[in-house]
Amino acid sequence: MLDLLIINGLVVTQNQKREIKQVNIGIKDGIITYLGNEIIPSNQLINAEEYILLPAFLNAHIHFGEYFLRGYKENLSTEEYILLGEKFHDKFKEINDEIRNSSINNVVLESIQNGTLTVFGVRGWPNVFKFPVNAFLGYPMMNSKKLKDYKIDFEEKFNSLQKIGNVEYFVGLHSVKWIDEGTLIEISNFLNRNKETKLSLHICETIEEVDYIKKKYGMTPIELLNKYKLLNENTLLVHCNYLDDDDVKLLKDNKVSVVACHSSNLKLKNKPCNVKKLLDNKINVMIATDGPATNDSLSLLDSLRVTALLTNLNSCELLDMITVNPARYMKINSGSIDEGNKADILFYNRNSLNLTYNRSIIENLIYTSGNKPEIVIKDGKVIIKNYCFESKIEYDIIQEKNRIIKLLENDNVF
C-alpha cells in the first residue's frame, strides 16, 4: 500500500531523457517508488489534472543572515557590501541573536514558498532544523569581527555540530582574501582526513580580489586553492566571475563544481560568470540566488531568468542548474522525479495566466514573473496547500519579523 498516489499530472520529470509526460507518481515512506499509468492502492490520492509537477529546487548558495539588509541603498561594490554587514552587526550587537534568528526563519520560509526544498548556506543552525528542507550548512571560516571566533578550535567545533536527519555540514570558507595562509593549510589538512566533507567559498568574485591574491601570493585564487589541494569533486566555488583559461582548466581537471549568482553580481557591479565557457568545458554549473539583500528575490526561477537573458542558454539547460546539477554535486537523491528519489514535488496551477502551451512549460516558468507553487510536497507530505503552509508556521515568523523591523526602522544604518 502506497502512502500517496498522485494521478493525472503533467510531470516535468528532469529524468535522464528530460521527459515531460503525464504519469502517476506513487510515494512510500517519503520516497518515489512508482512511476506509471496504473492506479495503485494508496492511503491518499491527489488528482493533479490541473497541475504541472516539477521536482523541488535546490539553492546551492544562499545567505541566511542578511534578510534585514534587504533594501540597502544600491550602487555598493562587493567590498562595500561586506563592510556594510560588519557595520550593521556592530550597530545592533545587543540584539544580533534576535535579528539573525528572525532572518534565518524568513529566508527559509520565503525559499520554501518559492519552491526551494534544499538549501546550501553558511550557519543557519539550529533554526533551519525546524523547517521541512534538506539543509547543507556551512561552518564559517573568515577573518571578520563577527566570525573570527569560529576559527578557534575549528576541527573540534565542526565535529561537535548536532547530527540530525536531512542536514549535512560543510566547510564554509568565506574567500581566500578574508582568510590567512595558515587557515588554508588547516582546512586542507582537515579535508584530507575527512574526504567526504564538502568545501564551498566565494572566489574570483571581484577583479580587486583577484589582483590582491596575485600580488600577495603570486598566483590566481584558483591556483592558490590548487596549491593547497582544495580543488576536487567536493569543492563548490561561488561566483567565478574573473577566471582565466588556466583557471578553467584546473576546475575541469579537478572535477570542481561552480555556482553562479548573476542577479547578485549585476547588482554589485561585477562581471557575471561566463557559464557558457564553463559548460563548454564540461564543468558542473548551477545557479543560485545568493543573499536576500544582494539579489532581493529568493526565487530560483527569477535567478534563472536573469541568467537566461545574459546567456541565451536553452531553458532545459537552465532548469538543470537548479535541479539535477546541484543534486549531482550534493550527492542527494533529489532534483528529478525518478523512482528512488525523495518525494519533493512542486505543483504549479495550469490555469495560471503565465502558462500557455505544454511544450512551453519550462520557458513560461522561467521568463514570466511571480510563479510560485500552489502545492508543495516534502518527503511525501503536503506542506503547502493553496499557497499557504499547512502548519501555519508563517504566522509567528511574520509577527517576529515585524517586531524586529520596528526596532530597526528608525536607525538608518544604510
* CATH homologous group name of the largest domain: Metal-dependent hydrolases
- Give the assembly state of these chains: single chain
CATH class of the largest domain: Alpha Beta
Number of strands: 19
Largest sheet: 8 strands, parallel
Please characterize this protein's 3D structure.
This protein is α/β, with parallel strands linked by helices and 414 residues long. Helix content is 33%, strand content 22%. The protein is built from 14 helices and 19 strands. The strands form three sheets. It has an eight-stranded parallel sheet with strand order 8-9-10-11-12-13-14-15, sandwiched between helices. The longest helix has 18 residues, at 96-113.
